[in-house]
Amino acid sequence: MSVRIHALDDSRAVAWDGFVRATHDATFFHLAPWARVIREAFGHPTYYAMAEQDGAVVGVLPLARMRTVLFGDSLSSTPYCVYGGPVAATPEAASALESHALDLQKKLGSPVLEYRRRDAVDEGWTGRPPLYFTFRKPIRITGDDAKDQAANIPRKQRAEVRKGIKAGLTSVSDSDTDRLHRVYAESVRNLGSPVFPRRYFRLLAKAFPGEHDVTTVLHEDKPVAAVLNFHFREEVLPYYGGGTKDARALSANDFMYWEVMRRAGAERGATLFDFGRSKADTGAFSYKKNWGFEPQELRYCYRLAPGARIPENNPNNPKYRYFIQAWKRLPLPVANILGPPLVRGLG
């Protein structure tokens, strides 16, 4: 039988996620609940397509359209996610999903179709110049704290973790996304970036009840750093995190990421730490290298309508330089009001 393409709906969600969890090339960001999160948090239409043959799922393609006045129009797999693109079990399914995506792009009139590939640019697609890199590394946690630190993180970072412990830092692991958001909002304002809405974090926690946690670092019972982690197969992915103005002096971020690594290995059996993506030549890029992670270029690729260009909606774009500097000076309550409408187009 030929491959048939179906839109994701509630009746197909279990089969969709079963395929994702069983397929090596699929990632946490291919899971079906992302579709609802993107729609409800940001109001973007989603077009999740599932390939079926002989009654079995043979491929999935998550797609969402971001269209805003300030940041343009793109059909992406997938916004707000590090990885995306189609995952297929057969060449026929891969071909059917690509044809579906190209037809959808034409039907919608979207000038940009984007696949957020981890490993390779699709044949016939336009790759972007190197910009985004991911950081992934195996970990092994045995329960012996000193030996585990020596085995998993470099000496300088171990010293920072010990500094945080001596400063009296402690951590808690729970699902308190509101407390996380308060810390995160201050952190991204200080970096000059608009903050995501609090509702987005709540929706993520609801969508992935057994596959997330929030690690919060406390100093004298006050939150100074926090991160939302995702758990997929044997991987842990610290995804949205930050620290207050006191975090750096306390080495709170180093302590936090060690606690994420330690807890994930000891409590969930994680064997791989995915530090997420960072842009080249940024502080976050250097920080992750200092943790012993080697950067791996992400192969984002595009199909562009005539006259369209690869989107450059990122802080490395010189035209945003003055905006970023001005945003850093905003009072936090003002930044928290203005940020969520802006960030809709910055997925």
Give me the strand/helix succession.
EHHEEEEEHEEEHHEHHEEEHHEHEEHH
Largest sheet, order of strands side by side?
10-11-12-13-14-9-15
Average the pLDDT over all residues and give the rounded result: 95
Biggest β-sheet description: 7 strands, mixed
| Radius of gyration over all CA atoms, rounded | 20 Å
Spatial separation of the terminal alpha carbons: 37 Å
Q: How helical, in percent, are the residues?
A: 25-40%
The CATH architecture classification of the largest domain is 3-Layer(aba) Sandwich
**Strand pairing plus helix content: what structural class?**
alpha+beta
CATH class of the largest domain: Alpha Beta
Architecture blueprint of SSEs:
Elements: E1 4-7, H1 13-22, H2 33-42, E2 49-53, E3 56-61, E4 64-68, E5 72-77, E6 87-88, H3 91-108, E7 112-117, E8 126-127, E9 132-138, H4 145-152, H5 155-166, E10 170-174, H6 177-191, H7 198-207, E11 212-219, E12 222-232, E13 235-243, H8 247-250, H9 252-268, E14 272-279, H10 283-290, E15 295-297, E16 299-304, H11 321-328, H12 332-343
Parallel strand pairs: 5-7, 13-14
Antiparallel strand pairs: 1-2, 2-3, 3-6, 4-5, 7-16, 8-16, 9-14, 9-15, 10-11, 11-12, 12-13
Helix pairs in contact: 2-7, 5-9
Describe the structure concisely for a colleague.
This protein has 347 residues and is of the alpha+beta class. The chain has helices spanning 13-22, 33-42, 91-108, 145-152, 155-166, 177-191, 198-207, 247-250, 252-268, 283-290, 321-328, 332-343, and strands at 4-7, 49-53, 56-61, 64-68, 72-77, 87-88, 112-117, 126-127, 132-138, 170-174, 212-219, 222-232, 235-243, 272-279, 295-297, 299-304. The model has no long low-confidence stretch (mean pLDDT 95).
